[in-house]
Amino acid sequence: MTDTASPPGSRRWLMLPVVLLAMFMAGFDIWVVNVAAPSLQRDLHVSDAALQLIVGGYAFMYASGMVTGGRLGDLLGYRRLFMIGVASFAVASLLCGLAQSPAELVGARLLQGLTGAAMVPQVLALITATFPVGERSRALAWFGVTMGLAFVSGQILGGLLLQADVLGLGWRAIFLVNVPVGAATLIAAAIVVPHARGHRRPRLDPLGAAGVSGSVALALVPLTLGHDEGWPVWTWICLAACLPTLALTLAWERRLTRRGGEPLLDLPLFRDRGFSAGAGLNFALVFFFGSFMFVLTLLLQAGLGQSPLRAGLEAGPLALTFTTMSILGPRMAARFGPWSITIGAGLGVLGTIALALTGLRYGSHLTGWDLAPATAVIGLGQGMALPSLIGAALAHVPPERAGAAAGILTTAQQFGVASGVAIIGAVFYARLGPGRASSVPAMELAMAIDAVVVLAAAVLTLLLPRRAAARSPAVTEELAAELSAGVAQQAK
């Protein structure tokens, strides 16, 4: 519930494309950098490790601030924090486009992810606050479609921007395009987005946020930089400190729960087997998808020497099947229940194995179109599994705790992206070797590991409850939308 009445219908529907445009920017920037990765290495002399930080660091910071961003929206007002987020995201994008060194780009990219975490949670909150129940399902449907369009555009529009070399900007255009788009969104938001604020005033948990993010960083940073740096002592110290830091964070979260506080992690949720399995599935499936997209782009451009535009077009079958199944996924979930997730994960296993076998068959004669059938199957599987995952994971979670649960699940997704890029990227580069004679064997090894990850995810789906607890249609639609869009915000 919020302290604002629903605005007139025409204004609500004018607001929707404005907030969805901000959502599009955040999703677009996750995928477009994959297309630009080889250009960054060539023009800015970005190292392999720095490239992994540029791609995965965005998702890491996005995950680190997601739950806190949602709570700040409750405290400060959704409209105000949305506009702050849009403005800061545009500034961070400008800094990315103006970067003169890999270090500057990494720093700006981390800032961009953090500002996205302030902006994105307010989108679902504003939709929930301003649309009555009878109209909300239509608005939320456009919410899911926007994420699919962001994925398609990240691959294809990103390739077009790089190929066109607008004003001689090269790779900088993929970041600088957010500046005018952000400015237009900000102006429109000032006119059509209503003031809205939750009745509830949540308390922040800065120690919990720092502890969870720090634990993950202590593992991902050495895994990302270790190969390039020759595995110095500090990398092993960080890895050794990861688990103790996580243990201390969990102890703090338990203590905060006993004191009646509001911890970042609602640990009692993990007593439910279905929720615990759902959290693991969120991490594993997005770990796979993020690493797969990273490796595929490097293979097509750096390995096979294709242009960004051609690489984007050759990812078209994948984008098409992913988007189509993302739209149809909720219907399949309603019909087949958690089995749709099992089938989707199984298709991911088959597609990943087919990708590796295609590399073995064609070797140095491999082309992007040879990979298209396998990547299309992967798109089908991911599009089928992800939209229905939150409904299954939340089947036995009380509605009053759904916001906290969705926050954990979507944070696990974004940490999955960052972890996949760091770990599988490190394996890919280690197999590639200093001469980079061929990217195909490195891709085959990376996909073999990813196949094991997705197979484990498929087995994990068997722990999901086969029969969901009864919920009203409106609640079910809202929970499904929270997963497919990756938004950690309590919609009440």
Q: Can you give me a brief rundown of this structure?
A:
This protein is an all-alpha fold and 492 residues long.
Describe the structure.
It is globular, with a radius of gyration of 21 Å. It folds into 3 domains: 1-204, MFS general substrate transporter like domains (Growth Hormone, Chain: A, Up-down Bundle); 206-263; 266-487, MFS general substrate transporter like domains (Growth Hormone, Chain: A), CATH 1.20.1250. α3 (78-98) packs antiparallel against α5, α6 (133-164) runs antiparallel to α13 and α11 runs parallel beside α16. The chain has helices spanning 9-43, 48-76, 78-98, 102-119, 121-130, 133-164, 173-176, 178-192, 206-229, 233-258, 273-303, 308-314, 316-336, 339-362, 368-393, 402-432, 440-460, 473-485. By secondary structure, it is mainly α. The chain contains 18 helices and no strands.
Largest sheet: none
Q: Supply the number of structural domains.
A: 3
Low-confidence parts: 468-492
- Tally of individual helices: 18
**Average pLDDT for all residues:** 80
CATH top level class name of the largest domain? Mainly Alpha
- The tally of beta strands, per DSSP, is 0
Please state roughly what percent of the residues sit in beta strands, choosing from under 5%, 5-15%, 15-25%, 25-35%, 35-45% or over 45%.
Answer: under 5%
CATH homologous superfamily identity of the largest domain: MFS general substrate transporter like domains
N-to-C CA distance: 5 Å
CATH architecture grouping of the largest domain: Up-down Bundle
Multimerization status: single chain
Structural class: mainly alpha
> What fold name goes in the CATH topology slot of the largest domain?
Growth Hormone, Chain: A
| Percent helix range | over 70%
Query: Shape, please?
Result: globular
Give the C-alpha Rg: 21 Å
**Succession of helices and strands:** HHHHHHHHHHHHHHHHHH
